[in-house]
Predict the structure.
Amino acid sequence: MDDSRRQQLLRLLNDPLIQLDITDIGLLLHVDQALTHRSYAKEQRDKGLPCEDYERMEFSGDCILDFVIGHELYTSFPKLSKEVIQRFPKYEGKEEELLTDLLHGMTNDNSLSRIASKIPSFDECILRGGGVSLEDSVRAGAFEAFIAAIYEVGGIDATTTVIKRLFRERFDQAEPIVSYKNELQECVQKREKTGNINGIIGYQTRPDPDTPENNKWHISEVFVKLSEKDLELWGRGRGKKAKDAEAAAAEDAFLKHCT
């Protein structure tokens, strides 16, 4: 890591929204990897230079965000539920569904991209290969990896503090985003005569072969097997991440078969 990159990362970590005092080069390398897109890493490896991207860290950060934000929603639920249910009466008596949709509303790519954009120097720290634009999915993935790096560097207490600081306004304005997976499951439950829906809904998700390696998307198909009927394809979807493709497939199936 050259000095200009080190100074760039230090400015990011010293930002008032982050406030992490890190000078150890080993710890800074975690942060550097968290902000390295696979397109840039591939370009460096093609030149014979060692370089790791943020994809594994993205998975870890996704889990950490779900845990911290989910717990915060859970602990604030008694206050939150009255306010949200007044606006969204469909959640009356459905606490788990409400919390799930609130969590999705705060941790989807669009939301994470907006949160990351609040950090003044975040975008300039993301290393990308030629031709890769800074779309929401790229910024959100780097942000999830950045959260994982904060956890590796500072532990869960420091990470929780940073997440709460960044998401403070979002907690105050939390709104649910409909989980079409849940909606589809409820729809199928109503149609299944036996009352047993285990194994009735299945997703087949895979990388989209028509997308380049440095900007890979996923496609998903959702199948439903109701009793006394053959296995049927209900919906298809596409998304940057596998879970986004499955959500899109569930939405497609719900709109085609349940409305």
